[in-house]
Amino acid sequence: MKLILSKNMGYCKGVSRVLALAVSALQDAKDAGKPVYSLGKLIHNDETCAFFADQGMQVIAGSEGYEPGVVVLRAHGVPDTVRSSFVEAGFDLVDATCPVVKHNLSSIAAYASSHTILIIGHPGHPETLAMRGVQCGGKSCETVLIHNPEDIGLPEPGKSYVVFVQTTFDQGLWNEIQAILRTWERYGCEIIFANEVCPSSINRRQATLELADACDAVVVIGGRESANTRALYRLVCKRGKKAWHIENETEITDEMRSYDILGITAGASTPSEVIHRVIDSLQQE
Q1: Cross-referenced Gene3D superfamilies, in alphabetical order (predicted)?
Q2: Which of 105, 159, 242, 253 is spaced 20 to 30 Å from 29 by Cα?
Q3: Structure confidence at residue 165 (pLDDT)
Q4: Segments of the chain assigned to CATH 3.40.50.11270
């Protein structure tokens, strides 16, 4: 069996930044004698989250009922009301929001008074919730969520719209939605596309497609909750190749070793140690 590794896999810059800030938060909390928390899982990898739990970092869903301490906000960003609740409760915030996401959140606030805001994203995804939770004038900005082309209705003639997309959204679906929204210009509407899918996600997905074309089957490594890992798995399947989505080496099967050329890729929150363990295990007879 020959193994081929994707040219682009594992931690993205945003995930690396979150983990570095989390390590600093642990030390800052220890020095100050305060508890340390993360708002939701830092990343979609159980081993990494277990490491921080062992160091004393507790995963919480909100500020209520917890002793004020140091809290790490994830890369996806948070609704403004959530941020305010922690500040008002006396927590020290470590803002690990991805700089690209933070810029988009600021842009939503800037456009809110002059444009209708369309959010293209997955319902319930933390980044989508953060975009829909931007506050303007003391209340949440009015937004319209679009998840797929079927969600798109007709525009209000002559109205101005600005469109924001979740940075990890499916590129193909985003292209379809953009094409439909551009037709709104025939109604005299202004359509501004304020951002794009993250280049890191695009590059990772393109590398996965190239990998699928060069292999008989592909193993995709990443957490079950990781949207970007699931997206890589679906890409391989759509390419007509056999694929498996596994979290670590314990899920390797003999069937994987039965293919002549096996590809390996991983999601943006998969540690390099996990990838190496999977590779080592696959190479064992």
Answers
A1: 3.40.50.11270, 4-hydroxy-3-methylbut-2-enyl diphosphate reductase, catalytic domain (3.40.1010.20)
A2: 105
A3: 98
A4: 13-97
> What confidence tens digit (pLDDT) does each residue in 191-230 have?
999 999 999 989 999 999 999 999 999 999 999 988 889 9
CATH 3.40.50.11270 corresponds to the domain 13-97: yes
**Given CA atoms 212, 215, 217, 223 in this order, what sign does their dihedral have?**
negative
| Residue 274 DSSP one-character state | H
- Contact, 162 vs 106, CB < 8 A? no
End-to-end, the C-alpha distance of the chain in Å comes to 10
With a cut of 50, which residues of the chain have pLDDT below it?
none
Q: Which CATH number does 2-11+200-282 carry?
A: 3.40.1010.20
For 196, the enclosing helix (H) or strand (E) is none
Q: How far is it, in rounded angstroms, from Cα 57 to Cα 23?
A: 10
Residue 140: both structure tokens together: 């949440």
Assess contact for 4 and 215: CB atoms under 8 A: yes
Give the pLDDT of residue 16: 94
Alpha-carbon Rg for the chain in angstroms: 21
pLDDT at 137: 83
Three-class secondary structure of residue 214 per DSSP: helix
> Which pLDDT score, from 0 to 100, does residue 285 have?
65
Domain with CATH 3.40.1010.20 in the chain: 2-11+200-282, 100-193
Burial class (CB in 10 A: 0-12, 13-18, 19+), 61: exposed
Domain boundaries 100-193, corresponding CATH code? 3.40.1010.20
Q: Looking at the annotation, which residues are catalytic?
A: 127
